[in-house]
Amino acid sequence: MFGKRKKQVAGCDIGSSAIKLVELKPLKNGEFQLQVAAIAELSPEAIVDGAIMDSSLVVEAVSRLISENGVKNQSFGGSLSGHSVIIKKIQLPAMSADELAESIQWEAEQYIPFDINDVNLDYEILDDGVGRENMEVLLVAVKNDRIADYTSVIVQAGRQPVLIDVDVFAVQNAFEINYGVPTETTALINIGASVTNISVMNEGMSVFWRDVAFGGNQYTEAIQRELSLPREDAERLKLGERVGDHTLQQVLGVVNSVSEDLAAEIDKTVNFFLATSNVDKVERMVLSGGAARTVNLDEVIKGRFQVDVEILNPFRNIRYNESDFDPDWLNRHASAMAVAVGLAVRTVGD
Predict the structure, then answer these.
(1) pTM above 0.90, yes or no
(2) What CATH number should be reported for the domain holding residue 94?
């Protein structure tokens, strides 16, 4: 009861287009105060398909964020997604927690498409199956080499990596501290530059997870092809900004076409979830990630699925001083900060 308060983790989301850094201070009433919120853009060649291709560029960007924002916290948390991450809900014969700890490595081999010695494995009991034959376990496996690449960046930036999470769970954390646990079936859709993370919550529980190799880069590349523009200009246009003589109207057809393709990928995932669960429909969709701000994307998804669609604000219930943080800047970058916020609510050793 009188123990020392656990130390917060600095959330460092190393994405393929930008690094996001968030630090929160816990308040006595269960709320958080924003201490740091910062973004450093990355060149496209630094990280490709989730693999760090030029670690010096990434280390330099993380170090710059630490220095410019006066971050003293030594404990950093990171997050991963994509092909190197496997998340499965499995059924096993009911057993004690000790028995599960002894056998999980062998049990997991049946579900992991990698050599079990090449992954870092974690699990959580969802239903202990007391009085029944089977128990439900959430299994998460991440390739060791991918963990090593990302933790190495943090170490080279002079900080200690104390936890590695998975993007879908970090987004869920950010959602729950700002909106509470949803009562309706809700799809959280985190649209990054190269990967879209989709998770579904039903009856307050996370029940489905999938990563799709589709993201904001598809918009940028389509605009570049259409108008022969440099990448930076295409990035601005997809967010609805005017660039020279080019206007939103010139690219809206291209952007909407890519949004329809993304919506189709989401539709496949949702239909697979509905076909393999006892849930009838998804009632709400919440978008996050840097590409969530793509002009008209929320309307395209709303039109396809006929459900409520909103863009997640991970700072909605987080206190901050307007003298320290420009509200317009936070609003503009909020959706991109969801994973970093979800990491920053974690504590060392939790």
Answers:
(1) yes
(2) 3.30.1490.300
